[in-house]
Amino acid sequence: MIIIMTVKTRFAPSPTGYLHIGGVRTALYSWLHARQNKGNFILRIEDTDRERSTQESVDAIIEGMDWIGLDYDEGPIFQTDRFDRYTEVINQLLEQGDAYHCECTRDELDAMREAQRANKEKPRYNGKCRDAGHNGNDIESVIRFRNPVDGDVLIDDLIKGQITINNRELDDLIIARSDGTPTYNLTVVVDDLDMGVTHVIRGDDHINNTPRQINMMKALGAELPQFAHAPMILGGDGKRLSKRHGAVSVMQYRDEGYFPQALLNYLLRLGWSHEDQEIFSRDEMISLFKIENVNGAPSTFNTKKLLWVNEQYIKTLPAVEITEHLQWHLDDQDLDVSNGPALHDVIEAHRDRAKTLKELAASIGYYYEDFSEYDEKASKKHFKTATPDILQNLLDKFSKVSDWNAANIQAEINATCEELELGMGKVGPALRVAVTGSGMSPSLDITMALIGQQRSLQRLQKAVEFTRQKYA
RNA sequence: GUCCCCAUCGUCUAGCGGUUAGGACACCGCCCUUUCACGGCGGUAACCGGGGUUCAAGUCCCCGUGGGGACGCCA
Question: How far apart are CA A351 and CA A313, in angstroms?
Answer without folding.
Answer: 9
